[in-house]
Hints:
Elements lengths: L30 H24 L11 H11 L19 H14 L7 H7 L6 H10 L36 E5 L11 E7 L14 E8 L4 E7 L8 E2 L3 H7 L5 E4 L8 E3 L4 E3 L4 H7 L10 E3 L43 E2 L3 E3 L12 E3 L5 E2 L19 E5 L1
Antiparallel strand pairs: 1-2, 2-3, 3-4, 4-5, 6-14, 7-14, 8-9, 10-11, 11-12, 12-13
Amino acid sequence: MQDQLKPITSPDGLFHDGNPATGELGTIVTSDWLNGVQSAVQSTQQELLSVLKSSGQTPDPARKDQLLQAVQNIAWGGTTKPSTLAGYGITDAASKIDLKAAVDGLVAGAPGALNTLQELAAALGNDSNFAASIAKLLAGKADRASTLAGYGITDALTQTVNADAVASLDAIATSGTTAYNSSTSGAPTQYGVVLTVSNVNPIPPVGSSGSVWVTQTAYGTDGTRWMRHRVNNGGWLPWSQMAFSDSVASAAPAGMVAYFAMPTAPAGWLIADGKSYPCKDYPSLSAALKNLYGGDGVTTFAVPNLCGEFIRGWNAGRNVDAPDRGFGSLQLDAFQGHRHNNAQIWSTGAGITFPSVGANSAVQISVDATDGTITGGSGTPRVATETRPRNIALLACIKY
C-alpha cells in the first residue's frame, strides 16, 4: 500500500469556496493532487481485493459484505464466531471437560497435602479463571513440531533404525516386516527393512516337509531394493538387486540396437526391419530417431532395416569410410581394386593351365573358364553373389 495521501496545497490544507462578488478564488485542485488521489484509491482497492481473493471470493459489485466475510474467514475460519477450541482448529488443547477430569483425578489420587480445594487452588496459582488462562496461552502457542529440533531440543538421543533389528534374516519364521542392521546375517545392505511374504504362517524351517514358498524384499536405507526367495525344502537363493524404471532406461535407452538369439523380439524391443510406426505408440523411440529412417518424425517414424546387414561404425570425419557418407545410410557390398601378376600362361582349350612346378611357380593350379573358380594349394573357394566374411544370422532389434 502506498504512503498517506498528501493534503491539498492551500495555506491551511483545507478546501475553500471562491467568492465571485469579491473576486476571491476557490482552492485550486491540481492534476498532481488528483493523480495522487487516484493512485491512493487504486492502491487501497488492490489491498482490499487481495483480502477478498485470499478468502476464496470473487469481487461482486452487488454485494456489500464481502470484506466483512473475508475478515471473518481470517479471524474465525468461517462466518460464525467459534465457541470451542476445535472451532479455531486447535486439536491438541485440553477442554473444560478434560481439565475437570484431570483435576478430579488429581484430587482423587493426591496425597493428604493436596486433598483440599484450598491447597488445589494454591497449586493452580489461585487463578479463578484457570481454564480461560490456559485457553489463552494455547491460542498463542506455536505450531506443533514433529522432531526434537523443531522444539529446539539439541541434547536428546534420537531414535535409531536398528533398535529392533533381528539377528538373522534367514531365520524369520513369520510373514511381516522386520528391521535389520550391519550385524544382521543374511542382509543385502547395512541397514534397512525386509518384507517377508509366505503362503504358510508360520514359515516352516529349511529342511522341513511340506510345500511352501517364501519371498523376501529388502528396502535398504541407501535407496536400493533387493529380492530373494526359497521354495519347499531348499535354501535361500542369492539376493538380486531390483532395478527401477529410470535405471533400466539408462542401461538400455530408446534407440539402442541389440542382437537376440531367437526369432522374435523380446518385450520392450522392436525388430529393426525398416517398418514405420505412429509416434504416439513409441514416443521415446520416435523422439530419438525422428525422421532419420523414414516418416515425418512428427506423426510417424521408421526404424532402420538391419535385416541381412552387417553393422559398420560411422565414419564421423575419420576419413576411413566414404567422407560424404551420412549417418544411418546404406552402403552396398564391394571388393577392393587389385591385380594379379603371372609369369607365363598357356591356353589349353576348355581351360587355362599355369606352368608346372618350377622356377616361376610354387604350385600347379588350374582356372575353370566357365565360372572362374580357382582350385589349388589353398583348397576350393566358396563362390557367391556377394563378398562376405563368416557369419551367423541373429535377430537385430531396437529398444523403444
